[in-house]
Amino acid sequence: QVQLVESGGGSVQAGGSLRLSCAASGLVYSNYCMGWFRQAPGKEREGVATIISDGGVTTYADSVRGRFTISRDNAKNIVYLQMNSLKPEDTAMYYCAATLRICALGPMWYDNWGQGTQVTVSS
User: Fold this and answer.
1) Which DSSP category does 31 fall into?
2) Closest CA to 43 of 91, 81, 86
């Protein structure tokens, strides 16, 4: 059993910042690639960022590169997404996910998902 619980979402004005957290339990967390995904109403779920098990390599969607930073604390079983310079188009439900397969931005590779946390960015 794998449990992922996101927190840190909320409402913020454009240009502001939020930090999302994902707490993991029920798995050997340090062996997993972790990812953040988002889905806006009427749109497909898209990959935002990934980080490999040792935290040494990260990937980002073009739309967030330079603004968002993914990191992980394996001692605490937590992965973070620092979101800066937020834009209204960042508004979405954000999901944390874990995989032992391919560490990539495609949702199809991920087996374990959290329930999501809402991020709303106003103009």
Assistant:
1) G
2) 91
As a whole number of angstroms, the distance between CA 2 and CA 106 comes to 20
Dump pLDDT digits (tens) for 7-62.
999 999 999 999 999 999 876 777 899 999 999 999 999 999 999 988 889 999 99
Buried b (16+ CB within 10 A) or exposed e, 47-80: bbbbbebeeeeebbbeebeeebbbebebeebbbb
C-alpha distance from residue 98 to each of 2, 10, 31, 45, 103 (Å): 9, 23, 10, 15, 9
Provide the 3-class DSSP secondary structure of residue 22.
strand
